[in-house]
Amino acid sequence: MTRARGPKYIIHFKRRRKNLTDYKKRLALLKSGRPRLVVRKTNNRIIAQIIKYVKVGDKVIVSTDSTKLRKYGWFDKPNIPTAYLTGYLCGKESLKKNVKSFVLDIGIARPTKGNLLFAVMKGAVDAGLETNYDDKIIAQERLNGLHIAEYAKKLKSDEQKYKRQFSGYIKQGITPEDIPDLFEKVKSKIV
């Protein structure tokens, strides 16, 4: 095994070597001078944070994740309606802390059209925060879960497929066909 030696050899930051941080993209976001809406998706939750850069390190102003929606009557499922409500909740909490605008930071996730990370951004914008974005990036009709309800109605005739597909909702006592109504109730509770 040969080792790289010499004055031109560069050892990159550990987070870059492990492909966890794109420092070029991060620097471009920090140059805006605006707080970042940092959005991350795990297998079980969606995390939204408003973070401001200071010289000693990043300062988290507001931190919200999808589990906080339980107290408003929502369920745990990392889908587009949950992402929108998480962003909406983060936006409302940010307004209380005097944050007016943000720049979206999705990390190393791919910015594909319809990605639920953009639903978080749309929720924050609808809550009253400002940012530059294109309305075409997220389908408006998918934000409230209407697509889930329509699919559930189609599968209702085949009970076995229905139970298999929507078992997570059924375990939590939620009828998938009622998701748009539940969405509106939860959104109205977030103040």
Report on the architecture of this protein:
With 191 residues, the chain is an alpha+beta fold. It has a domain at 14-141: Nucleotidyltransferase, domain 5, CATH 3.30.420. Helices cover 39% and strands 14% of the residues. The chain has 8 helices and 4 strands, in the order ααβββαβααααα. It has a 4-stranded mixed sheet, with helices on both faces. The protein is globular and about 70 Å long. The mean pLDDT is 91.
Q: What's the CATH first level of the domain at 14-141?
A: Alpha Beta
Uncertain residue ranges? none
Question: What's the multimeric state?
Answer: single chain
Q: Please tally the helical runs, counting DSSP H or I stretches of 4 or more residues.
A: 8
Largest sheet: 4 strands, mixed
Q: Determine the structural class based on helices, strands and strand pairing.
A: alpha+beta
- Widest beta sheet: strand line-up: 3-2-1-4
| Tally of DSSP β-strands | 4
What percent of the residues sit in helical stretches (DSSP H or I)? 25-40%
**C-alpha-based Rg, rounded:** 20 Å
Strand percentage: 5-15%
How far the N terminus sits from the C terminus, by CA atoms, comes to 61 Å
Order of helices and strands: HHEEEHEHHHHH
Whole-number mean pLDDT: 91
Task: Briefly note the CATH topology name of the domain at 14-141.
Answer: Nucleotidyltransferase, domain 5
Shape: globular
